[in-house]
Amino acid sequence: MAYPTAASRDIAAPAEKVWDLVADLPRMGEWSPENAGGKWVNGATGPALGSVFKGTNRNGLRRWSTKVTVVGCEPAKVFEFAVTSGPLEVANWRYEFEATEGGCRVTESWVDKRKPWFATIARVMGDHSANAAERQMAQTLDNLAKAAE
Questions:
Q1: How many domains does the chain have?
Q2: What range does the domain containing 11 cover?
């Protein structure tokens, strides 16, 4: 079940292959226009329910890190993570995969979990509106397609 802010793209590669790319969070910076990668932490070595990742992000000259917790992990079907900044919820990102005749359809979706006051303060880091998320999702999916195809 995708979140309301979503983008989909057909990719000419098997769902298993594209899922592996998405779930390899240290490589997310290769696909995402804002994420710059990061590393698995707290003993995690890869994607699994509850695995924690320290994400590194950039927007122009601005840089910040986030804590990412895997909350959905079904190979070739779903990959979802919850993003926090310190104790504050930021957003959830979800990827759903469905087989198609020529490969798979990937749907990336996003839900903003920030409290209004936090969203206002976070504007200094850039535009994190639903419209900006849709643009970023389209770029991410294009980059995934280029890597997978």
A1: 1
A2: 5-148
Say how many C-beta atoms besides its own lie within 10 A of residue 68's C-beta.
23
**Across the 149 residues of the chain, what is the mean pLDDT of every consecutive 10-residue run?**
91 98 96 93 97 91 90 98 90 96 97 66 56 88 97
Q: What tokens does 57 get?
A: 């992000």
Residue 60, number of CB atoms within 10 A of its CB: 7
The CATH number covering residue 71 comes to 3.30.530.20
Helix axes 15-23, 130-148, angle to 10 degrees: 120
Q: 49 in helix, strand or coil?
A: coil
SS3 95: strand
Of the candidates 44, 90, 33, 43, the one whose C-alpha atom is nearest the C-alpha of residue 70 is 44
pLDDT in tens, 86-99: 888 888 999 999 99
